[in-house]
Amino acid sequence: MKIESTQHDLASPDGKIVEFQKIDERTAHAVVLIENINKDFVGFEIEKQLVSFNIKSTLAQIGVNGVGINYEIDKAQKSARVLVELKAIGPIAREMLALLSCGAYIGKLFAADERRRVRDPDYLSRMFGRSDRFGRPLLSLGGMQGSDALILDKIDGRAVAYLSLRSGKVSYDSVIFGFLPTIAKGLHSNLPLRDLLYLHQTWIEGAPRNADEDEILLVRTARLHVRTVFARVVSDLLAPGYQHTSASVLQPDTRDSGDIYEFFGKSKREITDLPLEFYTLEPYREHVFFSDRDQLQSLLENESSLFTAFQTAPLPETTPAATFVVKGSQMRSLQPSSWTMLEPTYQEFPGISQSTRQAHLIEKYIETQPAYPYLKAIEDGYITSQGILLTRYFPTPLLKRLLLSDNVSRCLKGVYFQYPSSSHKAFFSQEDRALLVDLHKFAVPVYWVDHVTNRILQYSQKKNRESGMFVPIDFVDTYMKTTVFGIYGSNLLSGNFEEELKKLLKGVLDLRGEMKHPLLTADTPLALITGGGPGAMEVGNRLAKDLHILSCANIADFHQEGGVVNEQKENPYVEAKMTYRLKQLVERQSEFNLDFPIFVMGGIGTDFEFCLEEVRRKVGATSQTPVLLFGAVEYWRDKITQRFECNKRSGTVKGSEWVSNCFYCIQNAEQGIEIYRKFFLGTLPIGKDAPAAELGFMIG
After folding, report:
1. Domain 471-700 has CATH 3.40.50.450
2. When comparing pLDDT for 678 and 125, which is higher?
3. Is 551 exposed, middle or buried, given 0-12, 13-18 or 19+ CB atoms closer than 10 A?
4. Strand order through the sheet with 254-257
5. Domain boundaries in the chain?
6. Distance (Å, whole) CA 577 – CA 555
7. Per residue in 277-303, pLDDT tens?
């Protein structure tokens, strides 16, 4: 779906007379040229007999009817030439016919595509009581909820609405003849002639609504709103003896209008109602709510359908591409041409010192983003249906202003992407993660169609947390309730702790049935977070997955010039994750948000993480929960004790020596389970009111 025109695809612009021949005082032939037709105009594709000429309502209300008798429609030139037979009904119309000339815009084409005809009245009735973003009813007659004046039915396989006519008819004052030359001139421009014509019309309450020969019958209905469809008078359902002019199509911008309908013919029987049939707009302009798109929602619940949708994106895969999807049939029929494919031209921005140039360059860069045309169309009101954005790369943070605008956040019901970044590939920058947080706050769901885990992951944020991670959609509710354990350790060594860690985690799962602690009850799900790489991290993720504990990872890319970092390829046991492309290592570590850290043998990174857990407990950034140190007492003494004793001697940890009692060295699972048991029962000596550990850690 590409938004390349403000025109609707079932209607053309107005066309002008280029040839005019008067046959007699009641009849004329005009060749009408229509130019600049939307390239997606349905009339280019369907059978010609389904395309009709619609006379301007201004002329129809005077009594001039126009019927197309020959059509030449040229898609290549985006134009059409229509031979129109004009008929004058009544003396006012005969005078008007004599004033028409070349250059006058007198009507347009309408394509009555059978595929777009509304067949189910429920499609219309669900619009009652709903409004657009300006509070205007989507469909109503006589009131926001619809009324008894509008009757929906299904006739011959199509939805038909019968509009009750008001009692009376419209007549003209005697000076209308003097106004006709003004109308004739106005047809050469875009003046709102119908509003001016209204000044010469008089409503005659209670006048009989019946047709006489050579007389136009003008009637009215209750106040009408049509925003979600084209409506057209159903000629074959009119009362016998009545015909409607070719000004029979109601545009989808009809609002608060007790508009006039023009009948002619001969009948002594009063006409009482007006039958309308309906044709859907382009899907993105239907004002349809996401909750009404059952087929689309079913497809989004099927993970394979999303992977299939992204396979239709144009190649090469390195080029950014995006599309906006509003209905299931659209998603099933996606093809490369359905996507907008742009290559943003990035250059260094000069900075705030050159604010005008900076703003100009950023605006130009934003406009080259493939998601921009859709977001801008939503903002400007050209896209009115709620839907989802499919984008190869997560949107640039420079689109934040559009993404979080009232109109876009109201219309956008999901952002689905394949890759976090065109420049950083699988990793999010600091600005990307800030945008994720903002989208979450504005209730715009974000989904990662992740080819590594082969799952659809939804960005999820726990309550009272300022960061989150991408979680398989069927685990989101579980993730929100989890108590989180974590493994810190070497990416080089898997260690010899796997069997004991497995026993430990199984023991915690068993403890749930005994405990009624805020962090552990019978219904508490568990999650385990690692750095997502090989070695000890892979062991932890594998065990978590085997034990049906949500297996999570915070995966960082440290490709900094001059750094020495072992490659940390994502291990295959990660289910939920967040990725980081950053220089500020502390930021990534702060988002582990572990309730219960577990340390195993590790190097410089593990030492850093140990210090962070100490600091968190000292400053109260986390609860005073026990931290397990797996391994020999001698190993942890060499790592921790000398530093702890040095700090005590120098007085630099005075008043916070107690932090040491949060760390427990254990050699087997049983010791760890017992420490957890005492903590959950409230009998573990831990925190400010408990004594410090002499070695800088406790021995379990």
Report:
1. yes
2. 678
3. buried
4. 139-141, 224-226, 254-257
5. 15-116, 121-167+209-281, 287-451, 471-700
6. 7
7. 999 999 888 888 898 889 999 999 999
